[in-house]
Design brief:
f41 fragment of flagellin, N-terminal domain, 4-stranded antiparallel sheet, 2 domains, 3-stranded antiparallel sheet, rod-shaped, single chain
Length: 402
């Protein structure tokens, strides 16, 4: 290449290389100071798009974990209250057992027992209405919510608390240990028509009553309501069935309720041993023809007996059902809490993996970047020196002009 004064190509090349080196040096400095390999979209456009998607997942998973922890708090709040509800029910049952000991209790003693039971029922109602989480009532039987426990749509866990923990919801609001059989309407309205060779018939009437307050009587067993109020124990040949234990909740008509009752009788006493019939004036229970007494000695074994529950006895039955209801709900809440715990553990693992993937894409390799920085720094110093040399080349022309 000839000597030229107008254009110094060597200096231009040195300046261009120095500019590239300075850009690389600035990029290395930015990566080293920020800790990120990708600081702008220009650094890695595809990598930036992928890492931003991963960051969205990381944020969503983190919030989902917090939401699941909120779910655990809701469950623990409800279960803690139901634990106290169970304690109250257990105390009420103890009092009912004590109240059933009519042979040793005076009227005043029974009234004192009932006073404590009444206070406990009020406490049950208070717990049911005051147990809340962030303003939402948990134990009125209507709580149902979803918790977003993941980063994406559909990753939810539903929590439903279907138990009304009030005294009415648990079926113990009418419990009154002072009520005797006569208060509810006597079991003496049972008639027996039993002879040798003739099936026995029991007509049960006036046996429905609330276990507290003014007793209600419904003898019309062509209506569904009469079945739901049944209480008392039917006996035959050493076997017995508590009518309160028969579940009529699935019956929509009196006929369906009668079918349910018949199934319970068959299960307890054997098929065809006792036949139930509903009339407008009472419930009839008839010995099956197969069990009609052949002799007078057989009559006691084939006689259908009936004894209505006292208020205390009805209370024991009602409280047992309430305890079972609350225990079932607590088991459900415990299972839900375990579900949340497993979800949180799984989401923590997912968060760790997504964070690691995002880090591999976006974070800078400090060692490799430091090597690049050192190389760029050396090239920058060399380029500066060479540019200074290249700028002096046109001065050689002066030697030719001397």
């Amino acid at each position: 290449m000839g000597l030229s004064v107008q254009t110094n190509l060597a200096a231009l090349n040195a300046a261009n290389n120095l500019t590239n080196t300075q850009n690389q040096l600035a990029s290395s400095l930015q990566k080293l100071s920020s800790g990120f390999r990708i600081n702008t979209a220009a650094d890695d456009a595809a990598g930036l798009a992928i890492s931003e998607g991963m960051r969205s997942q990381m944020g969503g998973i983190t919030v989902g974990i917090r939401n699941a922890q909120d779910g655990i708090s809701v469950v623990q709040t409800a279960e803690g209250a139901l634990n106290e509800t169970t304690s109250i029910l257990q105390r009420m049952r103890d009092l009912s057992v004590q109240g059933a000991n009519s042979g040793a209790l005076t009227t005043d003693a029974s009234a004192n027992i009932q006073t404590e039971i009444t206070k406990l029922k009020t406490t049950l109602d208070s717990i049911a209405t005051s147990t809340q989480f962030n303003g939402k009532t948990l134990l009125d039987g209507n709580y149902s919510s979803n918790f977003q426990v993941g980063a994406n749509i559909g990753q939810t866990v539903g929590v439903a608390i279907g138990t009304d923990a009030s005294s009415a919801g648990l079926g113990v609001n009418t419990l009154d240990v002072t009520k005797t059989v006569a208060d509810g309407a006597s079991s003496g309205a049972v008639t027996t028509a039993l002879a040798v060779g003739t099936p026995g018939v029991e007509t049960i009437s006036n046996v429905q009553s609330t276990a507290g307050g003014a007793p209600t009587v419904n003898n019309d067993f062509t209506s569904l309501g009469a079945f739901s109020q049944l209480n008392g124990t039917v006996t035959l040949n050493g076997k017995q069935l508590n009518l309160k234990s028969v579940d009529f909740s699935g019956a929509a008509t009196a006929g369906a309720a009668l079918t349910t009752l018949q199934a319970a009788l068959d299960k307890t006493f054997g098929a065809n041993a006792m036949t139930a019939g509903g009339t407008a004036t009472g419930l009839t229970l008839t010995n099956g023809s197969a069990t009609a007494p052949a002799t007078a000695a057989d009559i006691p074994a084939d006689t259908i007996g009936f004894t209505q529950e006292t208020g205390a006895e009805a209370g024991i039955t009602a409280i047992d059902a309430a305890i079972n209801k609350v225990s079932t709900e607590r088991a459900n809440l415990g299972a839900t809490q375990n579900q949340f715990d497993h979800i949180i553990n799984n989401q923590n693992v997912a968060l760790q993996n997504v964070t690691a993937s995002e880090s591999r894409i976006r974070d800078t390799d400090m060692a490799a970047t430091m090597v690049d920085f050192t190389k760029s720094q050396i090239l920058s110093q060399a380029g500066t020196a060479m540019l200074a040399q290249a700028k002096s080349l046109p001065q050689d022309v002066l030697k030719l002009l001397q």
